[in-house]
Amino acid sequence: MVLPSVVRVGLAVIAGLAAVVVAVLGVLYAGDGQPGRVDVRVGAVAEGVAPPWLYVAQAADFLGEPVGAAVLVLGAVVGCLLFRWPRAAVLVGVGVGAAVVVARLLKSLVGRTIHGDNLSFPSGHTAFLTAFVLVVAFLVVGRFGLGRAAGLLFVLTAALVAGVAMGWAQVVLGAHYPTDALGGWCTAMAVVPAVAWGVDRVADGRR
Questions:
Q1: CB distance 173 to 61 below 8 Å
Q2: What burial letters (b/e) apply to 160-175, b meaning 16+ CB within 10 Å?
Q3: What is the domain extent for residue 137?
């Protein structure tokens, strides 16, 4: 089971709320090409970031680029196969991939832009890293048998740290508005639990 039963109910609620947030933000910023009030206030905090923090932002951004993302996913898949967790390997590929695909579809649907005609909502980088860390967190909870409260807290903390780190990097580098990063985080939180549940259902059905 890749979606631990102890966090299933809690994540179902969170996934539903995340989907609502994505929908609301998507409607609010549809076809827009300017930062909102929240974007201006939050973005002002990130202005003027200099080395070494600028290098940290660039390193985080690399993890969401094709090469960096491929290395992370491939490494995780190989690790799962070595430990004989085929179901987990499937979730790494399908879960993370689904989050990225949904983010790209939403970008075209919402049509929000930054720096000209570059589609920005939601942030695909933030969706990717959040989804990847979320999958890893599922595996950790299942492997170490964490309880309901501890498991849910661990999963949410891991996902939040990943989302904030990548979202911060995207804002610092000027690639996204803060609300784009929030949309990317919520996209992963809505998609990955649903995919994990689906993987379990299919695998259990075949068994």
A1: yes
A2: eebbebbbbbbbbbeb
A3: 5-206
- In sequence order, which residues have a C-beta less than 8 Å from that of residue 188 and are 6 or more positions away? 99, 126, 127, 128, 130, 131, 134, 159, 163
Look up residue 24 and give its amino acid: V
Cβ atoms of 31 and 167 within 8 Å: the answer is no
The overall pTM is greater than 0.70: yes
Query: pLDDT tens digits for 65-85?
Result: 999 999 999 999 999 999 999
Residue 110 CB partners (closer than 8 Å, separation 6+) = 26, 29, 30, 31, 119, 121, 122
- Token pair, residue 104, equals 């790209």
pLDDT in tens, 161-202: 999 999 999 999 999 999 999 999 999 999 999 999 999 999
d(CA 192, CA 205): 20
Q: How many domains does the chain have?
A: 1
